Every structure is written in C-alpha cells, then in structure tokens.
Amino acid sequence: MTGMSKQRFSRPELIGAAAATLGDAEVAAYIADRDSDTARALASTVGRGISVASYGAVGDGTTDDTAAIQSALDAGGDASTITLVPGASYRLTGSLVTHIWQRIEGASAQYGTGSTAPAELIFDVSGSTVGIRARSYTYLKDLLIRGPGDAVGTCVGVQMYDGTSNALSLDNVSVNDWATGADLNGVYYGLFIRPEFRRNATGMRITSSLNISIYNPQINSSRAGGTPGVGIDGAARPLSIFGGSIEQFQSGIKVFHSETLNLFGVYFETTLAAANVRGVDSPSLINTTINAYGCYVYTPNVTTWIEQRGGTGRVLNAHGNSFIAGASSANVTGSAAYRFSAGHGVDISGDNWVRVETALTSYTGFDGGALPYPGVRVEIPIGYAGAFTAPGTVLDGKLPLRPVESKTVTVAGVVIINPAFGNTELTLKANATSMNLESVGIHRQELSLTVIQDATGGRTYAYPSNFRFAGGAAPSNTTANTRTTVSMRYDGVVNRWFEVSRAVAVPTG
Q: Counting C-beta atoms within 10 Å of the first and last residue's C-beta, which end of the chain has fewer, N or C?
C-alpha cells in the first residue's frame, strides 16, 4: 500500500475497482493508518465482491436505488460478485439486469440463519415489469425479492433474460408477492436450494427447460384474500423436487406434455376451499411421466392428489406415499388420491392410508371404467375404507387375462370400441354399419376384436378405417352361431392397426 494516499480511495466509485486488486494485508495497513469510513467500506468488499453501497445505494426502503444497484452490476460485469448490506431495504422502480456468471449476494433471515437482518429488494413496479432479468449463469443468494402484489399486472420476480438456455441458480432466496415468482424459459441446469415462493399467483413457470432441481422449497401459493394460486406451472425434462412443501394451492403443480416430474418426500397441503383442487394436475396432452415417492399428503379440500388425464404415452409411478386428514376435516365430494385415464402405464403401491381419519371418496379413479386397464397395477392400501375394493387387493392390468369389453348391437348403426380394454366382444343382432375407436392406441398396443353372429346370422359389419389386414382383405363372416376374431397391433408412427392373426367362422356351440 506504500505510496497510496487516502485521497485515492475517498471516491466511492473507486472502491469496487480497488477491491479487485488489493489484498487483506494492504487493506489492514490502510485501516491502521486511517480508520476512515472509506477504508471500512473498502475492507467490506475484499473477498466479497463489490458492495452496492459503493455506488450510492442507500437501502432505506424509500430512496430509489435502481440506478445505483444497476451501476454496481455493470461495474462488476461478467463473473463478478455484487453484495447487499445486511438489514438494508432497497426500493426499486424498474428492472435490474445481471451479467453472465454474475452473483448477487445479500443476507437473509429465512430458514433460521440467526439474527442476521435480511437484505431486501423491494420492487415498486406495475404492468409487466420484471424484477431481475437474469443472464446466463446468474446466481442469487440470501435475498428477499418482494414484488408489488400478486394481482398487480403480470409482473415477474426473476426471469431469464438472454434466452441462451443456460443455468440459473437461487440459493436461500425468497420471491414473494408477484403475479409470477420465477419465469424459466429455455433454462438448462436450473438449481434452486431452499427457495421460498409466497403469495404469488403462480410461484414458478417453467417452459422448454432441462434438468431443473429444487431442494427443500417452501411454496405457499395462497394469494391475497385467501385465493389459492398455482405452485409450479409447467415442467422440465426432468423437474425434480426433493423434500420441502407445496401449500395453499389451486394446483400444486401443473405438468404438461413431453415432461418428467420427480417428487421425493414432498409435503402437500391446502385447506383453502376451491373447486377441483389438485396436488399434481397433468392435462390431456401426451408423454408425461410422474414419479412420486414417499410424499406426505394432507387431504382436506384436495379433490385429487395426482391426476393424469387423457392423451397417450402417460406414466404414473407412485410408491410409499402417506395420506392424512384431520378428524374434523371434510374432503371434497368425488375426491380421489389418484385419477387417470385408460392406456397409461400406472404402478401404485405401498401407500399409507391408515391415518386418513376422514376417508377420501375413493383411493383411485379410473376414467371410463371400474376395472384397471392394461399396464395398470394398483395395490389398494390397508386402511382404505371405500367401496371400490377390499384393502390389500392388487389390481393388476398386466396379467394375461385382460378386461373384456362386451357390446351387443340390437339396432343397426355405428359401434364405438374402447381399445384400452384389449379385448372386445361384439355380438351382432343387427348390422354394425361401421366401427370407430374411442381413443388413440399406444404404440405397439394389441387389441383382440371378436365379432359374434347370433342365431339368425347374416349380420354385416365394417372394421375401423385404420385397420390394415393381411393381403389387404378383411375377414368377413356372416354365418349364424359363429365368431370371427382378429388380433391387431398398433403402430403409433403411422396411426394404423395391423393384423397379427385371425380365426374366421369358429362355431360358438
């Protein structure tokens, strides 16, 4: 420090630049020489990065600190660390834009970090303002990011800015009071450690992202006035949540097509009355996989915990989850722990139902039928008090004996066949002018269709338009008291069912 005068560091804008080159020993010597406010400010930056106080940020909750903090961000540039003063409340009237690999670090009192006063960013904004526009590899740590309220425009707390599909990390950060807390579009390797999202209409919105991991979150999406919002809207390939809680929601998680959602020991609860409340809601699109292991579900006002609706290529694996409702708690009529449509790969086992004091209406709901479909295995838990089937029963749609759909045609017309059953028997007492399939098949799914002529015979019938037969000729038999069976396999690439085998005019007697 020899030859350096105190005068050189009396200007705040020089502090950040000097801190990048000075060592602890030099700063200590300077402080020993002159215990000035400037020296202490300089010392606070060594090893910690650039303090926003060095660029004029006041942090009194009233002064507009937007320009000062942005100046600190710009001065630091790529791969820098910007620090906030503990206990300061920075009022901002516009967006902050980070740089690549930039780290913003404060001090947060959340999650029991002791008596350290929080560092707050309080955004006094409206319209569609974004609080922090994050470039690739932005890392936010120990911050409280407070918005103008969940019903103020379409404001977003944290949003990726450059769209280059790179990482974003939040560590011990609270994002509260926004229309959307965090908006991730095209983010690779998102890492969220102990994040908190409270009082947001939507806690997180995730689109076209990969490898998003969330550890021990606190997501409470109760909006102003007690209106439940959405905890997480969208998903990633994959989105994995480890522990933590999702509470007071209309939809805890909405997960869409071509995604994978992994839940490990997550707590779900909502006591706010609303229609169609779901812990995990998977709308009728394609190729969604949901894996839930060891989760804890408090059931009051939860219509359905996990729902896989419609579409094709859906997978649901749920194992070892626990359900509980208080003795005085009422559940929504028609509720179920799980609900799914035909044609899904479903494996549910090992759940704890004993502590459900006020039983849900049903443990599982099968849309379109009372029996499990092919590819479905459900182990009814001990303690289940509903009427669907006895506790301890295993319903296994993977068994060779698949459910049979039986139909009888008494009036000439169109016949609808549900391919999810695997076997369909059609007894003709009148002509079947045409056959249609109720739903699209699953790639490589097999379907056996048997047409039975009554004692009169002569009944004509036409196969579904996307059936393709060996040699190009469909088997046609009108002999009385006989049955004709064709076995078909579905090719989802071309949306066609191709003949595997046939047995024509087999006597019924």
A: C
Instruction: Name the CA dihedral angle for 152, 153, 158, 163, rounded to a multiple of 10 degrees.
Output: 180
For the chain, 509 residues long, the average pLDDT of each consecutive 10-residue run is 39 42 44 45 52 94 97 95 91 96 80 62 97 94 94 94 76 95 91 95 92 95 82 90 94 84 94 78 78 88 79 83 66 62 77 66 61 70 63 62 78 89 90 89 86 95 94 92 94 92 92
* Alpha-carbon 480 to chain mean position: 55
Q: Is there a contact between 246 and 223 (Cβ–Cβ < 8 Å)?
A: no
3-state secondary structure 278-316: EEEEECCCCCEEEEEECCEEECCCCCEEEEECCCCCCEE
Residue entry with tokens 């292991």: 293
pLDDT of 395 reads 72
Pairing of strands 288-293, 259-264: parallel
Instruction: Give the total residue count for the chain.
Output: 509
User: What pLDDT shows up at residue 335?
Assistant: 62
The helix-helix angle for 12-19 and 66-76 (nearest 10°) equals: 30
Q: Which residues of 212-231 are buried (b: 16+ CB within 10 A; e: fewer)?
A: bbbbbbbbbbbbeeeebbbb
Q: Nearest CA to 353 among 390, 372, 380?
A: 380
CA dihedral 417, 418, 422, 423 (to 10 degrees): -40
Cα distance between residue 374 and residue 402, in whole Å: 7
Structure tokens at 340: 């799914």
* Cβ(375)–Cβ(345) below 8 Å: yes
Q: What is the reported pTM?
A: 0.70
Please tell me the distance from the alpha carbon of residue 360 to that of residue 363, in angstroms, as a whole number: 7
Which 8-state DSSP code applies to residue 372? P
Cis ω before 238 (30° cut-off from 0): yes
Q: Is 11 strand, coil or helix? A: coil
Secondary structure letter of residue 69 according to DSSP: H
- Supply the pLDDT for residue 404: 77
Residue 22: partners with Cβ closer than 8 Å, 6 or more residues away? 1, 42, 46
Beta-strand (E) ranges in 390-495?
394-396, 404-409, 413-417, 423-428, 432-437, 446-453, 467-468, 482-491
| Beta-ladder partners of 503 | 485
- DSSP 8-state secondary structure symbol assigned to residue 325: B
